[in-house]
Amino acid sequence: MNTVLEIILGNTLAVLIIYFLIKKFVIPLSLEKMLERIRQDFRKELVNVKHEFGLVKSSYDKYLDKILEYYSAIYRLYKLCQNVVNYQESYFPSGDVKSTKQQYDENLNEFVDQCRMHSGIMRLILPEEIIKADENVTKSFNFFKNQFQLYSELTEDKKLTAAFKEIDKQKNELESQLRKLLRTEKLLEERIN
User: Fold this and answer.
1) Which of 20, 39, 58, 94 has minimal Cβ neighbours within 10 Å of its Cβ?
2) What is the mean pLDDT of the segment spanning 26-43?
3) Alpha carbon of 18 to those of 23, 24, 29, 70, 73: distances in Å?
4) N- to C-terminal Cα separation, the chain
5) Average pLDDT for 172-182
6) Partners of 98 in the β-ladder
7) 118 compared with 1, residue with greater pLDDT
């Protein structure tokens, strides 16, 4: 019976020794290898993220001026339409007086050409939601132009005003989308704080 007990105790002791050796040396080695693999994967991913960030920053820097020129063209056309709705005449430093409707007629094609000049590259670099907002602004400008051509007499200004309100709504949506893209509100918040 002693020998059976000795064998059981010996085997139990051997199992415990093997267990502690495994726990002390083998598991930490395999964990260390696993951690090293995770570190390597993380480093590779970090290099990829840095590369992507560099591309995004380069694109942002490269296209920021183009986006601002595009928006400036849209805004100039917006102001031209706003003047037609809000004012009857413009007074110039030279003493000339022109009706805002006459100015609209004279300058519309120039403003439209400026907008078109930017639209090709904008369709390539801007996200889909901004392109849709741009299309909506364009539709509202076209509707305003049609209303202007149909009802250029003063008696029909209400229709022109309603058409301008749609331009204003669509322009505000475009501005909101551009702010999200350019993250200007976040940058402004950081500057203020």
Assistant:
1) 94
2) 77
3) 8, 10, 16, 73, 78
4) 82
5) 90
6) 90
7) 118
